[in-house]
Structures are given as structure tokens and as C-alpha cells.
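Example record

The entry below shows one chain as it appears in the dataset: sequence first, then C-alpha cells.
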Amino acid sequence: MKQIMLAAVLLASCAHAASAGWTKPDAVTGFGGWRTELQRIVNENEKAPVGHFCVVVKEADPVSPYRIAYVYWEEGEIIQGYGASRYNQMTPDMRSGAGRIDLRNGLVDTRAQIGTSTTLETRLHANQIINQCKRYGEAVVLRKEPSRGSN
């Protein structure tokens, strides 16, 4: 019985270590309004009636109050990052260019290629975010809502 309990404890600690602080957005206080913001994006998007998103939050470490939320939007081909303290509300705004990774035109192979650019990121970093999002985040598919003035 002790061996089973020890195995369960080890398994649980390994699972937590494996996530390395990545979690679903609803598990983090202070990141409200993200579903509303994603629905707004889908409603305003001229090109697609459906939006495929993945949202994940990365805690800096257990004692730090800082964290970053990432929203991966497939149709928009971007990852939008939002940094904040756990004491402040993060209000997502995908219209903001700050923290944005352009997956179509903003990726390079090495950190050296980034240089002083504020718009480039490495392919490795972008892929790590997408993979962690798929593994630990929340996938959301939203359909365009009918406009309020239509029947």
C-alpha cells in the first residue's frame, strides 16, 4: 500500500513538473474577459466565420507574482502575449501589437537574427508556445455571432 501511495505522489509531482507552470486560463485569477475578446475577434473578422484559438498561461515561478498569457489564433496566424502581475487584471486586446508574434512574417531561425527588432521571434520559441498551449492550454472554437440588427 505504501508503494502505491508513493507512486501516486511521484506521479502527481512529475505531472506538475512536466507542466512547468503552464496552465489553462481559467485556473489563473486575473485573466477574465478572454472569451469575450476572442468572440469579438471572430465577429469582426471578414475572412472566416469560425475562429480556432488556444489559450495558455505561463506562471513565471510559484513565488513570483508575474505571469504571461498566450493566445494562439490559427486563422490570424499570430500568437498574442499578455504579461501581468497576478495582482492585476489582464484584459486581452488582440488589436494591440505589443507582445504579438507574427507566425507568417515574423519568425527567424536564431536569436542573432532578431538583433534589436521588436517584431521578430525565433521559430523555436513560437513552436514551444504552440506545443505547450496544445498540451496544457484550452482550445476554443468560436463561430461568428449574428449581428444584432439582423433577423
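Notes for this example: Confidence is low (pLDDT under 50) at residues 1-18. The chain has one domain: 21-143.
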